[in-house]
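Our collaborator T.R. sent over the components below with a one-line note: 'Predict the complex.' Nothing else. No constraints on interfaces, no templates requested, no preferences about which chain binds where. So this is a plain run: every listed entity goes in together, and whatever single assembly comes back becomes the starting point for the next discussion.
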Amino acid sequence: MQSSLEIRDVRKTYGPVHALHPTNLTIRAGEFLTLLGPSGSGKTTLLMAIAGFVEPSGGRMLLGGRDITALPPEKRNFGVVFQGYALFPHLTVWENVYFPLRARGMGRGEARPKVEAALDLIELGHVAGRKPSELSGGQQQRVALARALVFEPAMLLLDEPLSALDKALRKTLQAELKAIHRRIGTTFLYVTHDQEEALSMSDRVAILRDGRIQQIDSPTDLYERPRTEFVAGFLGRSNFLTGKVTGRQDGRLLLDSPYGRLEVATEEQLPAGRQVTLGLRPERIRLCRAVAADATNVVAGRVADVSYLGPVAEVEVETAGGRLGVTTLTDAGAPPVTGDVWLQWEAASAVLLQEQSNLPDGHR
Amino acid sequence: MTVAAAPAMAGPEARHTRRLRNPVFLGLLLAPCLFLGIFYFAPVANVLVMSLTEPSVGLQNYRLLFESGAIHRILGNTLRVSSVTTVTTLLLGYIIAYGLVRVGPRERNALLFIVIASFWISALIRAYAWVAILQPNGLVNQALMGMGLIEQPLRLVRNELGVVIGMVHYMLPYAILPMYANMSGIDGRLMAAARALGASRTKAFCWVFLPLSLPGLVGAGILVMIFSLGFYITPAILGGGRVVMIAEYISIQISETLQWGVATMLATVLVTAVVLMTILMSRFMEVGGTIGAKGKKA
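Returned assembly:
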């Protein structure tokens, strides 16, 4: 039975260094939650605190309402897949998978069906008798997964499990992990610095930076409605446009900017004169030779650079307000875009970003 | 021990042969061989020959191995003292080596310095220092009597206990360093993984760390055993003539009773035992090397 894990004000300091500022997070039962962030963002510290290897400097962790903050790792009943797998080199694949059951006092005979089921799950029953050193990286990764799942843990913690593998294999294993998650319904808490990995696998992604959770949302919401400049820039590419609020009209905020008059759809009520930043994805901008007279968010520019990437082309356009990146689908036989162009986007395409200082801050 | 590095030496064949043809390299290789041949292997061969020819040709010296009560006693002493020394050294050395891999880098450097520093003091000085510490009116007995824990001084020296204490002290670095080298090759995440999978500290140690450190333990054990079997100074001084081991007995046969046949026979037996154990050790050290490397990779 899966239960949710509640993280309340958990923090970790090493002397004067805040590895993790007080953090609140609820990991829902059965979800695939990814902690995403650059190195030093505190994602691994948070994972290791949940696993029981890092003692929090403060705060509590409740698993289905039960306080687990003081429990040693072996009493938490969480499966952990370590970076580099950490398979036991002196034991066979079978014995590696049997290890957690043995630690729980289960005899070999009793454990056999469970070990075999776990090896079947990862389709590696045929290498049960081999030592880890005789397996490929992908196989080792699967064995580590089977070993962490065989005892039906309350939650599975994965610390950058795919980082040592090449790109093609990583793709395959991502799909496999997702399929296994769907099949067994165990809560997965996944740590990675790979944005694509996070977006493609997770139900929700928490983005961390400097020991703080910046935003936690579904992959779609994170990409489409980033709340801060950091999130918008960390996930994919983004243009940042600054302007001054001049008024409100039909659920839109009107801005005066170096690019001209801009409109952005938002619920936010901001006083006139307030300086704001907009995030705008390059693929949300239309690049055209001519625009309708009543169109909103129209910026004139001149093509400065084109990078052809196959399915899409990345176009850099010089405008009155500065350079804007535009991604357009390529068209067979069409000549490359050059010269003077119009840029245009819908009021709902741009996102009003919060200033860093407006973020809910849990510092100390 | 450098035995583990042997497979790495297998480089491109061509370069080897080219270097061998170069007279300078050839000379550099042959000179030490020649030196060892004349001053080491020839005398050892001579010892072997003498054990079969002194005082007359035949196996009569070797028959003493089965018939002489005195030699049985000496061999018994040697095996017993060496075994007790080896087991005690391994036990203490394992704990220290384990401590070395677990402490922080600064503490590790300090500890390693202490371990290595004991190499700098000669066995002779250390043996006499132990006599001074352990004798009836020595440091230990005076302290114990001063605290009122004992009435009579304990007999700590000029017996087997004294010999073992002195030998364990001498052997410890030889046990600690190979075991430390082996243990530092064990991936620390393996212990964390064992804990995360539900094993207590004790189970994680017994099921993961101990088996992975076994090659180092066995290798160190054989090394200490080899050294202990032929040990001379420490048992001679701390045993006070009461605990005679094979090396001291050989020395007596040569310089006092002048039974060179018996002495060379015992020397041959000792050398054979040591050579066999060295072969055994090189096997284990190789296994240790590969397991250590695998541990790192996995």
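Summary for T.R.: Chain B touches chain A at residues 187, 189-190, 192-200, 203, 207-208, 211-212, 291, 294-295, 297-298 (CB under 8 Å).
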